[in-house]
Give the backbone structure.
Amino acid sequence: MHIRAAAPPDAPRIVRLHVESWRRVYREVLSASYLEEEIEAERAALWNDRFSHPSFQPHILVAEEAGESLGFACAFGDDDPEWGTLLDNIHVDLAHQGRGVGKALLGAVAAWSAREYPERGLYLWVVESNVEARKIYAHLAGEIVGSSVWEPPGGGAVPSLRFAWRSAAELAARAGEGQRS
């Protein structure tokens, strides 16, 4: 597995992974009409916007193997004065889950954040009902430090939890950054 910085030509693969992941993981929390009719165009617009505005500066990584996209992550460095870098997206292709792809992406984002924003933390929001993701973040010593309600595309109100790590460097070490091939 290789993790690298994403580039504009990666947008279609990222959109595909994002759409597939949301359709699978959020089918109980997002509207059926959004998941069936709107998600592809809406996610494509989001990713085209992220890649076309360099001043926006998200840090986007893709994990790949033999030319196949395994997953991606997108972070906004030092986004919050208290919590640090926001990990806004992390998605792994269903066929490659359980192989450590998500953990490797999380570690790579944390290592980047620690280099760029020393002494800062990292945080993310997770849908409260996403029990599997919550277990992974807790296993990596993430702490629940807040809650909110996400108003997703397509409408609705979804309870969400903020997981945070006070040190991005410690998270990178815990996730095994630098120990994979």
Helices lie at 11-25, 32-52, 101-116, 131-139, 168-174. The domain at 2-174 is CATH 3.40.630.30 (Aminopeptidase). Residues 32-52 form the longest helix (21 residues). The longest strand covers residues 68-80.
